[in-house]
Amino acid sequence: MKNISNKFHKSIVSRLTAVVALLAMGCLTSFADNRLYIEPFMIAPGETQQVKIILDNDDPITSLQFELTFQDGIKYVDNSFAYDNETNRVTKNSHTPMFNLFPNGSYKCGLLSKSSTIASSAISGSRGSIMTIEVEADPTFTGSNEAILIKGIVGSNGTAEPAVAIKMADVAVAVSAQIGNATADSDEIVTRPNTSIQVGVALNNNIEIANFQAIVTLPEGVSPVEEGEKVTLSSRVSDNVSYSFEPISGETNKYLLLVESIVGDVIQGHEGTLFTLNLVADKVMEDVITISDFEVSNTSGISFDVKSDINVKIKTVTDPTGDGVWNINDVYAVLTSYESGIYESVCDVDGDGVININDIYAVIVKYNEAE
């Protein structure tokens, strides 16, 4: 049953309200572990998504009511309160649903057992989703730790004698804006000291963006190139976009990369390399370059966080095998690269950008000197 009308017979609503009110006022209260909640989730601004209302109950629960409030840019999609046909813990034959809009903008929700037999009136199972709803995020949604509030959760165990009221804790549901994710073109770069290093970063974005920024943390011994562009912007970025890559005051080896459009041009496409850092290491080392605090903004100037931290391992070596010793293994490595025609920077001993006979001569010289 995908869509359930918001309008129910007054008698059904009255029955459920009366049942819960009676239990809340009198009878017994259970102290077992019973929870009604929605798992934290991500949603792209402007998109609609189905989410599950989950009930984990140690006690049998025959009827249930609770209040849902949507805020901070998350909206309920009308008539989307529905049975979860994947779990079938609640079905149209077992329970009657209630979903009514209150004047304060919240929704009164409930489930009332249809069974005439108390023993078979409880919600099926004890873990998992019982119902689903659809929510829509505003185009300006940037995330909220309290986007959905679930309050006034009261169930009843009608299988007990006398009946037991089951009160559950209020829940605040965190919802994150799913803007996209940033990744490095390569997780590891092996190079030589004082040789240019290119660290490419790709962005797969769900929304149109005009500007972006990130913090780049470089290990000791790695710095931006002194000559030429410190950052190369990809073809996704128009000529109307400029960048700055400057040290952060008071921070060691940290740089702020800021890319801004002069006239509000948007980044082209929704995937692929966005920029490349041009760096150089001045010593033999093995460490990590980190790109964090990635933030993008749209043409309206609204900023969104990209939940991605990028770590690129950087290793500089002087010998082809990277063990720090020039030996016969390095000679074999250069010969193999030369014969295969596959360029490997660590085998480019003379650093001219190609693997040829000169590299073989150079590695033999290094080998002989080490001997």
Q: How would you portray this structure in words?
A:
The chain is mainly beta. It has helices at 10-25, 328-340, 357-370, and strands spanning 28-29, 34-37, 41-43, 48-57, 63-70, 74-76, 82-83, 95-101, 107-113, 129-137, 144-157, 164-167, 171-177, 180-184, 188-191, 196-205, 211-217, 222-224, 231-233, 241-247, 254-261, 273-281, 286-297, 303-305, 310-316. Strands 1, 3, 5, 8, 9, 11, 12 and 13 form an eight-stranded mixed beta sheet that branches. Strands 15, 17, 20, 21, 23, 24 and 25 form a seven-stranded mixed beta sheet that branches. Strands 2, 4, 6, 7 and 10 form a five-stranded antiparallel beta sheet that branches. Helix 2 runs antiparallel to helix 3. The longest helix is centred in the first third of the chain and has 16 residues, at 10-25. Residues 1-26 have low confidence and may be disordered.
